[in-house]
Amino acid sequence: MIAVIIPSFNVKDQILGVLSGIGPEVGRIYVVDDACPQGTGKFVKENCADPRVDVLFNPKNLGVGGAVITGYKKALEDGCRIMVKLDGDGQMAPSLIPKMIDPIVRHAADYVKGNRFYDLYFLRKMPAIRRFGNSMVSFISKMSSGYWNIMDPANGFTAISASALKYLPLEKIDRGFFFESDMLFRLNTIRAVVWDFPIPAEYGDEKSNVRIYKILFQFPFKYLNCLFKRIFYTYFLRDFNIGSLELVLAFLFFSFGFIFGGIHWIESIKSLHPATAGTVLLAGLPVILGFQSFLAFLHYDVANIPEKVITDIEA
User: Is 198 strand, coil or helix?
Assistant: First the structure.
């Protein structure tokens, strides 16, 4: 059974239109009222007669991630096999759900997400500042998540298989607007296969709940935290491979070159005697070797994208 989870906060004006657009392929629809000041959940109960709709209420605002996780848990309890996350503001087309879940149905992917950058035509409706910001965030997310083949990480139109979802530590996933990016990091730790799905960018008169200042101050540290955790989990805790060796060598070469070079540079300043050519070579060569080792690690990391879906592993 396919389920749709709709986190709801200040989307009272758009929610009924979103619900009416969901096709018969969906068996359950979970509208999660995240302590919405507009009373979206109550509004849906009073105005929507669709028997598939189940309204869930968070007693306090948990953020978009917290609302989605509430829906995920309920969908798992009800035995749903595929869970689609759909925003309630009308920016995402419910008519695309059958195509989005197709890779999961065919056991080709564990997680599918929207990508507004796939087609240049799709980007015409996206403001220039958003295009630039999303491009920068996408590159940073590639490094932190390990999915170098994925673009538009903050896109909230997603689908996940129950097989992959049950392996994720839902209690640890970010509850706020970093939810989608943190999901990619967590999916990589379980070696889930992630696909991009082309979708158009739609912008209407809805108001975004995103606070730019929070993103600017919080996201860089969260991405950095994910990056270090991913490297440790992937290359040292769960496995030690050629990529691990290349990273260790890069660190050792860089460290020796900078420390050795720094010490002799300071000594040359104090003594007013320039360092010899041999000293400069002995300091510079390890740095060059370290840079080459790091490039080799990056090449390995880019190629080390999960390829076997979890449903096949379980089978």
Answer: strand
